[in-house]
């Protein structure tokens, strides 16, 4: 079972993965953020304001900017942080799934990021007939110490079961689309049983939930924004979350979720909003 190593009362609070690695409950996502100054400044702002986890992917084509932001944030010693204080995730893209291809893709990602190791490396999508060979590559990288933890993204229960039939090492994390209209309750229960940490991408449904009347009511009761209420809901469910933003003010605001607690009624009301509605592709029906 994944457990909290300390209560979720700060941005540095961590969950302990099945292999003992500590992963922050909260991080910054950079999906669709283009290379350039805005990205570099967003990374620096996040680290300055207490974020320790950054999530990127090969297909985002922004690993170089993420790496630059990390280097600039750590240089000069102003933050007092070192590389080891951060938790950096990237993902192997579908076109690179396969044993040798995945090993090569990892080297490319690491080179662009300018890092010596990754904290977490994920298979981005469960491409049929390809993810098992890619998983073997991740296991090899893990054994070599090139990556501290390995996992998958967008895997449904049947994908996980299929992978675990032949896997030597069980995935430590499964990162999936998860928000109040897609609560992933069944998958959440399964991953919990298996000791796999669930992580939410698109936790705010790309801004589509901000006017939702139920969420607005709950947020207002706590003097918080809808975004903050949703992010808090994820944390209280034991789901790692990585909201995306490039604006410093929003980066700060998103992380201001450690000074209040949703009631069990609030939690149930949000759970009840589930419609199994996705903003991203269906992991059982994608063609890329």
Topology:
Blueprint: E1 3-4, E2 14-16, E3 22-24, E4 28-29, H1 37-48, E5 53-55, H2 63-74, E6 87-92, H3 99-113, E7 118-123, H4 131-143, E8 147-153, H5 157-166, E9 173-177, H6 185-194, E10 197-201, H7 213-221, H8 226-236, E11 240-241, H9 248-254, H10 264-271
Parallel strand pairs: 4-5, 5-6, 6-7, 7-8, 8-9, 9-10, 10-11
Antiparallel strand pairs: 1-2, 2-3
Structure explained in plain terms:
By secondary structure, the protein is of the alpha/beta class. The protein has one domain (22-271): Alpha-Beta Barrel (TIM Barrel). It has helices at 37-48, 63-74, 99-113, 131-143, 157-166, 185-194, 213-221, 226-236, 248-254, 264-271, and strands at residues 3-4, 14-16, 22-24, 28-29, 53-55, 87-92, 118-123, 147-153, 173-177, 197-201, 240-241. The strands form 2 sheets. It has an 8-stranded parallel beta sheet with strand order 4-5-6-7-8-9-10-11. Strands 1-2-3 form a 3-stranded antiparallel beta sheet, with no helix packed on it. α2 (63-74) crosses α3 (99-113), α3 packs across α4 (131-143) and α7 (213-221) crosses α8 (226-236). It holds the Pfam family Aldo_ket_red.
